[in-house]
Every structure is written in C-alpha cells, then in structure tokens.
Amino acid sequence: MNGDAALPEFLTTQQAGDANVSVGLREGMMIALPPPTVEPMGFFTDSTVCIGCKACEVACKQWNALPSDGMTWSGQSYDNTLHLSATTWRHVSFTEQERPGEGVRWLFNSDVCKHCTAAPCQEACPTGALVYNEFGNVYLQQDICNGCGYCVVACPFGVLGRSEDDGTAHKCTLCYDRQKDGLEPACAKTCPTDAIVFGPVAELRERAEQRVATLHAQGEQDAYLYGADDAGEYGRLNAFFLLTEEPAAYNLPQAPRRPAAHMRSRYLWSAIVGVGLSLVGAMAAAKGDRP
Q1: Which of 140, 141, 193, 248 is most buried, judged by most C-beta within 10 A?
Q2: Rounded to whole angstroms, how far apart are CA atoms 169 and 142?
Q3: What is the CATH number of domain 41-118+170-262?
C-alpha cells in the first residue's frame, strides 16, 4: 500500500523553504529549534568567606519548592542535612578541627552539583534524561527519567538522589528557570558574603585565581582551587571551589573517578578473556576427540 494513502495525516515530504517542518510529523506540528548556546555558566564557591549561615540551603529549597529534611538532630556539629540528596541541592558542611594551641577551627563549605564538563551521570543515563542545556549545565529532565539509579552510583560526588515520592532522580538545575529570565540562581542571590559567585565560567576562573593569589600574599599558603582545571581522568568542573584543607575535610573526593574513562580497557580485557576461554575450550574439545 502506498505510504501517502495509508497515512494521510502525516506529512511525507519536506516543505520547501521551511526548516521547521519534517517528514513524519503530524500536519501543523513544528520542530522546536534548540535555544542558542551561550558561554558556560557556573559557580565559584569560596569556602574562606563562607560563614555557615545556610541561607543558600534555605533559598534553594524555597525557590525549587523542595521539602524539608526533617528536624532530626544528627549529632554531627550543627549540620543536620549531612549531604546532598534528592531534596537537598545545596548543602553547607560543618567541619570542626581541633588544633594544638589554637582551639577549635571551623570549616564551612557550600556544596552543590559540580555540573561536570564530562559528567559521569550523563554518560551513564540510559534514557537521555540527563542533558547539557544551552548554559553548559547538566540538566535532568524529570519526565524522561525512569528511576534506574545509574546516575546516582556513577556520580563520584554523591550529588544525585532518588526521590521516595516519585522514584526518579533529582538534583540541582543551576536554577535553569531563573537563568532563562536573566536572573542569578537563588543560592548565589541570597549568599550574604558572596561566598557563592555565579557567572561565566571563564570569568569565574580568573576571579578565583586572583583570590588565591591574594590569600597567598596574605600568608594563607594552603589556599587552592578544587575542580577549576582538568585533573587526571576527570575534566574541569563548572562549579568549583576554593579550599584551604584536603578535599576530604569538605566531603569531596581527592581524585574523582569517571567510570567511562575505564570502559575501553575493561572491554579490551573482557575480549582477551573471552578469546582465551574460547581457545582453551577449543583445545579441550580437540583433545577429547582424539582416539
């Protein structure tokens, strides 16, 4: 049967001069062109000026209508949130360090999704729910997520969580809706000390490097940037940090792992083992056939 007669409600030819209409679309439907890309946007979080007020946590929950995490006393300093999750997209960590002769020192840091330039969660997603939007942010499309949890285990930073309400994964959107309207994310807007700075990643890196140089000149030689540059198998982060202690003190991995970086070698070893077992099997079969 002729395809044109069988499916009269479908367009079967490309309309000349109209790039928005495609074969296979119902008549009247249009292909939505993707928004134009802009320079990557991200966060620079300076832990040296974070005061642990948790205003960013509250602003994030309020703007994104995220539920509370309860009022359970964790017993771990003044931190009841403890970590990022499906309902907590900004988390201010509290670390108490007791130093000989100096008393107790407080370390604060506002953690968030790193919006990796080569995100393991996006690489692991089987449905295409995780994509890069026009701002270079890793964006999770809830209506496409099937709740498999692959992204949860792939992320080396423990960013993603699966909701107990709908069974799908959730994480920071870098306030995509606010960016679309030319507004900065709620957490950065609320931060009273500008510990969280939002903007083009290239500009943020310059600002961060200047801040490190200033701290070094003031005697804080331990100040360094975490995630601003490529390191090992992991690419730079679009949400990076200025720290003064080892990453573990801020609940960050020293050397984050990217599972996709090891897949080629694992496939190769699997192939070698498979060929080896086939040869052993063939030799055993040949030996068994001998009189």
Answers
A1: 140
A2: 7
A3: 3.30.70.20
